[in-house]
Amino acid sequence: MIIIKTKQEIEMMKRAGIILANVHKEIAKIIKPGISTYEIDQFVEEYLKKHNATPEQKGYHGYPYATCASVNDEICHGFPRKEPLKDGDIVTIDMVVNLDGWLADSAWSYGVGNISDEAKKLLDVTKKALYLGIEKAVIGNRIGDISYAVQSYVESQGLSVVRDFVGHGIGKNMHEDPQVPHFGRPGRGPRLTEGMVLTIEPMVNIGKFECTVDDNQWTARTIDGKLSAQYEHTLAITKDGPIILTDQENI
Ligand code: MF3
Ligand code: CO
Is 0.85 topped by the overall pTM? Predict the structure, then answer.
């Protein structure tokens, strides 16, 4: 069942989204060789506390941290670690902010120090794929139109899209209907209507799209050890088009 949100409810989610966007902007400033993802996780916890918000991921199905921090071949659900990040790493920081019971979800990939041209291309293509998906998030389109826009662009660039993790509806719960795959056919799936709030969150690999899961039962990594990146926004479907609730640019 898809839970439609009122304008007031979308406003509440936007407030959570602004905090989340600001956290990412702060991470962009502090991330460099030598910092650990554990320190970033602690920074996020403190930042959220200061803003009267809480990290929804902590304790979710037993997940132990405020953030997911997925380095290099880790696709998603990486555990923050005390080991320092190195020059040339790429890392995706993903989190869900709860403010007064309303949620926003956004993941962002960062290059650490100087990264390879191959890694730069991966980040650029993944981010552009997210925004191409968002462009299709308009009333009357279907979920499959988003899926197809993302997949066709990524594959045209010689990269692959992860199948095992998808975007989702979000509101008072982290994961609501509908699912938003980043692969599929146009004109298929649920129709987009006013007041739906979704995440679009493509995970893109340089090599094969398949993944394996670590012994910790959480962390997914690429089957061939090649790099993976992810960008994710939470957005509302409105008469004026998609509104990105976790936008880092217009705040
Ligand atoms: N933020 C993730 C998503 O995009 C969910 C993380 S799973 C958790 O759906 F258990 F770590 F919270
Ligand atoms: Co997320």
Answer: yes
